[in-house]
Design goal:
2 copies of one chain form a homodimer. Chain A is an alpha+beta fold. Chain A folds into 3 domains: about 30-85, no CATH class; about 95-300, Sulfite Oxidase, Chain A, domain 2 (Alpha-Beta Complex); about 310-430, Immunoglobulin-like (Sandwich), CATH 2.60.40.650. The first copy, chain A, is built from 7 helices and 24 strands. Chain A has helices at about 35-45, 45-60, 145-150, 180-185, 195-205, 230, 395-405, and strands at about 90-95, 95-100, 115, 130-135, 140-145, 155-160, 185-195, 210-215, 225, 235-240, 245, 255, 270-275, 290, 300, 310-315, 325-335, 340-345, 355, 355, 365-375, 380-390, 415-420, 425-430. In chain A, a hairpin with a 2-residue loop joins strand 10 and strand 11. In chain A, helix 1 packs across helix 2. Chain A is globular, with a radius of gyration of 24 Å. The first copy, chain A, starts with about 35 loop residues before the first helix and ends with a strand. Chains A and B meet through strand 1, strand 4, strand 5, strand 6 and strand 7 of A and strand 1, strand 4, strand 5, strand 6 and strand 7 of B.
């Protein structure tokens, strides 16, 4: 799975240095003054933000030194922050925020950039006072504290979570501009918690317990019904994400995680599991999160997130500066299991090449793919399609619409096409 | 590799609820007022810190609501933060900080909690002005910008980095108290960058180029010599960590990463690679980072971090509240490859059981292990030992000292012993 060394084209930008000094000093022609740096930063951030972000540095190095080897740096800290030069951010509206997929590397999404979707804001919860109730068709109704849940055997998994509304506007044409805007409602974390099956074994299922209602303690009291036979093997009650406790917007202090299922089933701020004999038909599985078909009927309980992929470099809103070598990079995933193969086309789907996959390739997890390409400076249409281990192949827009119509909003997983024009500008098209 | 469901002991703490209301309301006996909450927070944080941390919440929910379903939460944000209830932190001195291993879950270390080691502080570097010089025994000396390096094929790997001084005080007895204090100079991230071999292929090695000097642009201008035949296959020039750009204390905007080698060779703030025909004998490989043996000679260039492990739960400073089920959890790793097996003893090394390993088990990466244990309330000594894929077995303190003596500070990888007394208190011992 590892990548071979590849020679970039002669178009690769490089410069030559002749110095053989033991310690070089890099100097710009006009070393920026502190004022110049702060002015620059301020225009980017606004005064208050710049002050906060640069504060830990300003106390020790009031300037960005021309030669950092000549100025002692800042001491170690208890909790780190990113460089003030890095400004990647989620695209935030009140009830959702989107991950900047085009800025990410590897497969882990930084917790601070994991997408959000909530239905009445992120609640403030004191973990010491939070409880999980397990009741309904069980032998022993139980009430757990977070500390009690942490005493059970812990399991970790690196998996994606995707909102079923991701890319939903694309049903009606190429609406979004960037990978973030179109596809940013998917992210990957290492999640840790206790298996649902462990907790339910403690409560003891009684005959007829075939579904489970999960309820959040946010101001929407978000609820979904889940079929036990689909979730018992893999679902986790998570209290940690990427090594740390869950972030507030990811359900702190406890969320349900159903690997491969649509994000809204992974109930955040989880406070209740009720075992039942049939789906409860909550708002979120009747009025919302159903798929309206062309004949006016609606598909219900379409839990699985089907195979999907997106090229993140180059992607909408970016620009190739000149012809030459480009590493095409992207992410592929499937709620059904492992990514088996990713194919990439640079000619609008006439021909396809198999992309490389970065190890590890994990089930129900973002998988990084890459392909060498030499852009000749002419119009091109870039596409990727994911084939998962079940043999399912990601459909074209036409294939998807021919079956599902355009009434639906959820579960849009068609191939993304990026057009590159002769200026190198990348834009969203459907072909 | 997946874990089986296990039944906790009857000693598992639980409580029973009888309510069958559709939406429960959890009420504490005395709902805290805003004042009570802030007072509590302030005593923990100091006034200024509490203000900053709670600010995003106070604007929308001035209190921790008794029932969070009755108060709209806060809207989505561009860049997330952890809950103000979470306070895990690095143990920071000016030139180093240690990861709170006992607080972590899974294998990924949150970037904000990755250990630090620097020799003259963390420099402030503008990535647009940073350059990497490749020179010496090469056909074409080259100077790269960060953007130029990002255009090369990218590779990601999830691997640990460990300071060779980790646990160094333990040579002379059980000095540290907690897992963090003793072993906190190791962390795991997903690192992304360009392969060293790709960049060196661009420069073209000339005959005799067998070693490489790597130099940082911090105020220590940290330098190490590395044998090309050991590093060419795996070394990366990294610009990203856990999906995001490198953190400043991890070498932003560029660091060398040599998987499995001692952390100080993974030169941070990397600005120069000089190809040479022999080691340069820098301060860091003569005066420092050598291993003084009992006969007064010193081992030099002991790059490899040998197999090691530590039980993080229960670990020093923690307390088992009562007899009963405990999931023993810990981390194992080896700079030589994959963890093959972890064995755990609860009787000071008289008998050993094989622990479970959490998938994925990746080469040169922290690996999470776990074992069921029923504590009977009596004195116990817990130990773990890592066996890696080369067959190497982590030594006891006595075995290690019998060969290496106690003159050394670096490369201490003996078995950690935690004593549990009848009160459940866990402390550091050597047996």
């Amino acid at each position: 799975m590892d990548k071979k060394t590849r020679k970039p084209t002669s178009g690769e930008q490089k410069s030559t240095a002749s110095t053989n000094d033991f310690r070089i000093t890099t100097r710009t022609k006009e070393p920026p003054t502190r004022r110049a740096f702060l002015t620059g930063a301020t225009s980017l951030l606004g005064t208050a933000a710049a002050h906060v972000l640069l504060a830990p540095f300003l106390g020790h190095a009031a300037d960005v030194p021309d030669d950092p080897t000549r100025v002692p740096g800042v001491p170690a800290t208890e909790y780190g922050r990113r460089s003030p030069f890095e400004r990647s951010k989620r695209l935030a509206k009140p009830q959702r925020s989107r991950t900047p997929l085009q800025d990410l590397h590897g497969i882990i999404t930084p917790s601070a950039l994991h997408f959000e979707r909530h239905h009445n804001g992120v609640p403030m919860i004191d973990p010491a006072r939070h409880r999980l109730l397990v009741h309904g068709l069980v032998e022993r109704p139980l009430l757990f504290t977070i500390d009690e849940l942490k005493r059970f055997p812990a399991t970790s998994r690196i998996v994606f979570v995707e909102c079923s509304g991701n890319s939903g506007k694309e049903w009606k044409g190429p609406k979004g501009k960037t990978a973030q805007e179109i596809h940013g409602l998917t992210s990957t974390s290492e999640w840790t918690g206790v298996r649902l099956s462990t907790v339910l074994a403690e409560a003891g299922l009684t005959p007829g317990a075939t579904w489970m209602l999960a309820e959040g303690s946010d101001a929407a009291a978000m609820t979904r019904s889940l079929p036990l036979d689909r979730v018992l093997d893999e679902a986790l009650l998570c209290y940690a994400q990427n090594g740390d406790p869950l972030r507030p917007e990811q359900g702190y202090p406890l969320r349900l995680l159903v690997p491969g299922f649509e994000g809204n089933t992974c109930i955040k701020w989880l406070r209740r599991l009720k075992l039942v004999s049939a789906p409860v038909m909550t708002r979120e599985e009747t009025s919302k999160y159903t798929d309206l078909m062309p004949d006016g009927t609606a598909r219900q309980f379409t839990f699985d997130m089907e195979a999907k992929s997106v090229i993140t470099v180059p992607s909408g809103g970016q620009r190739l500066k000149k012809p030459g070598y480009v590493e095409i990079r992207g992410l592929a995933w499937s709620g059904r299991g492992r990514v088996e193969k990713v194919e990439v086309s640079v000619d609008g789907g006439n021909s396809w090449r198999t992309a490389g996959l970065q190890a590890p390739v994990l089930p129900k997890c973002h998988t990084r793919f890459y392909l060498d390409w030499w852009w000749d400076g002419r119009d091109a249409i870039l596409q990727s399609r994911c084939i998962d281990e079940t043999g399912y192949r990601q459909p074209t827009h036409q294939e998807l619409v021919s079956i599902r119509g355009t009434n639906s909003y959820y579960h849009y997983n068609a191939i993304q096409s990026w057009k590159i024009d002769e200026e190198g500008q990348v834009s969203n098209v459907q072909v």
